[in-house]
């Protein structure tokens, strides 16, 4: 029984397709990322602080309020950084896949040229 022969060029073309897809998807998400100003971050932190204070049933003293505000602001900044980092990681993975696929295609063409 004859075995089906796989094309050697299938892998780089699949990798090229994956790289284009990842780069396009995460590139669009990176392009659409909003640029947060300090006022936006402060407003979001204040809103989150008010929501946290409403969900907590215990009374928070005025002395603890600046520490809670700073912690909430740090959480907001960390969330923004995490979102940006995830998008940049996906974009980097897509670009690496593109480079590897192109390198593999060039190498295959050079090897085929040397055989002939």
Question: What attributes characterize this protein structure?
Answer:
transmembrane; single chain; rod-shaped; 116 residues; 3 helices; transmembrane helix
Can you lay out the helices and strands and say which pair or pack?
Layout: H1 10-31, H2 38-55, H3 65-115
Helix pairs in contact: 1-3, 2-3
What does this structure look like?
By secondary structure, this protein is mainly alpha-helical. The protein has one domain. Helices cover 78% and strands 0% of the residues. The chain is built from three helices and no strands. It has helices at 10-31, 38-55, 65-115. It is rod-shaped and about 80 Å long.
Regions with pLDDT < 50 over 5+ consecutive residues?
A: none
Q: What portion of residues belong to β-strands? A: under 5%
* Average pLDDT taken over every residue: 90
Number of strands: 0
Q: Helix amount, in percent?
A: over 70%
Biggest sheet record: none
Transmembrane segments: 9-28, 91-111
Keywords: Membrane, Transmembrane, Transmembrane helix
Can you describe this structure in just a few lines?
By secondary structure, the protein is an all-alpha fold.
């Amino acid at each position: 029984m004859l075995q089906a022969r796989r094309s050697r060029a299938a892998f780089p073309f699949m990798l090229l397709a994956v790289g284009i897809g990842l780069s396009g998807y995460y590139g669009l998400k990176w392009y659409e990322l909003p640029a947060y100003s300090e006022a936006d971050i402060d407003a979001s932190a204040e809103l989150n602080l008010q929501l946290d204070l409403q969900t907590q049933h215990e009374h928070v003293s005025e002395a603890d309020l600046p520490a809670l505000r700073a912690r909430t602001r740090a959480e907001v900044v960390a969330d923004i950084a995490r979102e940006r980092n995830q998008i940049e990681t996906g974009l980097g993975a897509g670009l690496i896949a593109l480079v590897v696929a192109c390198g593999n295609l060039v190498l295959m063409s050079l090897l085929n040229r040397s055989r002939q």
